[in-house]
Amino acid sequence: MHFVSTRGEEKVNAPQAVLRGCASGGGLFVPETFPPVSEGELADMLPLDYAERAAYLLGKYFDEYDMEGLASALRNAYSKFEGGDAAPLVRMDNGMYMLELFHGPTCAFKDLSVGVLPYLISEGKKLCGVREELLLVSATGGDTAKATLENFAGAEGIRAIVFYPEDGVSKMQKLQLCTQDGENVEVIAVRGSFDDCQSALKKMFRLEKYRTAIAEKGYLLTTSDSVNIARILLETCYYFSAYLDLVSAEQIGMGDKVDFCVPTGNFGNILAGYYAKRMGLPIGTLLCATNRNSPLSDFFRTGCMDTKRPLCRTMSPSMDVVSASNVERLIFEVSGRDAQLTKERMKELSSTGRYTLRAEEIAELRRNFYADATSEDDTVECIYEFFEDYGYPMDTHTGVAMNVAQKYLEKLESDTMSESHPMVIVSTASPYKFPQDVLYALTGNDVKDSFKGVKRIHLLTAMKVPEALKAVRYKPIRFKTAVSPEKMFDALLKFLD
Ligand SMILES: *Cc1c(COP(=O)(O)O)cnc(C)c1O
Prior knowledge:
The chain is built from 22 helices and 16 strands. By secondary structure, the protein is of the alpha/beta class. It has a domain at 89-103 and 230-465: Rossmann fold (3-Layer(aba) Sandwich), CATH 3.40.50. Helix 9 packs across helix 10 and helix 17 packs across helix 18.
C-alpha cells in the first residue's frame, strides 16, 4: 500500500511512512485507498482473537512487511495485557457496551497502537535500508509519552525522548513518566500545554534546520504521536474487533449498524473509527465527545474551525487539546482528497487560527459524525450516577464520552426521525490513572495522595488495581527537568550529546 501526503505530491510505501512520521512541509501521510473488508471477510474473522484480527486487517496496509513477523509482533504486544484480552467489550445494564482499552502496560488505549511500533519501526529500518539510529520523539500528552517510554526502553538502535505538559497530566501520570527505566530514554516536562508541545514537534519536522541538526548528530527523526499514520491504522483494529464481538455474542446481526462514542483530544482515535467505516465496517454515527477546551463540537455544527480560545485545565487532561492534528486528515477526505485546498486551509489555520468548510463538506461530516462537549460538573455527575446505578467505575475521559452519549440518546428519543443503533463507549483509560479526580467524582472526597485515592477507589469498587500502577509507587524518580516550549529543541540536542 502506498501513502500520500495531505498537502501534496508525495507518495511513499508503508515502511517509509512509518519511519518518516510526518510528510514534508508539515503534511500527514494517509493511505492511498481504504482497502475494503467484505461481509464475508468479517465472518471469517469471527473466530479469531484480537491479535489475529489485527494481523489480518493490517496486512492490507503493511504488505511490504513479512506477514508472519507482523502477526507475531502483534501477538507479543497484546500478550502483555492483563486478563488476556486486549480490547474486551463489556455489556452495561443500561444496554450500552464499554470497549475497555486500558488493560495494557500503561493503562491507557495508547498501548494498543504504540506497543506495535517497535516492530514496525525496526523492521521498517531493514526494509528501507536505513543505517542511522532513530530518534523517536513524542510531544503531546502524558499517555502517549508513557506508552512510548514503556515500549521503547532498551530498544536497539533507537533513542526516545518524550515531552509532556508539566501541568497537563495527573499526578499518577507524572509518576509513571518520571520513574521510567531505560538508558536510551529521556523525559522532559514542558512549561506549556499539549498544543505547545505538539506545535514544537511539528516545527522539528517541518523546518530543515532542525532536521539537519539532528542528522548531524547521526540520527533520523520520527515520532510515536498520532501524526504517525501507523498509530491510526493500528487503532482501526479495535473498531472491527468490537463489532465482531457484538456479532459473536449475538447482540447484533452481521451487517447491522453500531454507533461508537469516542472521548476525543487530538482526533486520532475517532479518525481510526472513520477509517474503519470507510473500509466497510457497518458504523452508523461516530460520536465525538470532548471537554470544553475543544472547538470540535462547534466545528461539526458550523463547519468553521476556530482555535482562538483559551485553554483551561480539566479532569480529562489527555483531551485538553485545542488544535487537533488529525482533523487535517479528516478535512482532506471530505474535500474529496484535495491536497491543495488542505494545504491552504492549514496555512490559514496557522496564520489566523481558523478556516471554514464548504456546505457539501459539512453535510458529509454530518452524515458520519455527531459532536458535543461536556462541562466538568456534568462529567463528575455522570461518573457518580453511572456507578450508583450500574456499579461500574469509569475514568474521567470515558466519563466525558458517557455523558455525551447519554445526551445524544435523549435527543434521539425526542426526535423520532433519527435512527438509533447499539452504542459502544470507547473507554480510553483505567480509573486508577486519574485516582484523585475519579475518587472525587465517586464520593465527593479530595485526597492529596494518588495512592490513597487508588486504595479508596479499590475499597469502594473492588475493581482490580493494575500491577503496573502499583509498581510505580516504589520506584525512584529519575527525571526532573522542566523547560519552556522554546527550549524543547535544545533539550533534545543535549540528550543526543
Ligand atoms: C490520548 C487520550 C485521549 C484522546 O485521544 P485522541 O486520539 O488524541 O483523540 C482520550 N483519553 C485518554 C485517556 C487518552 O490518553
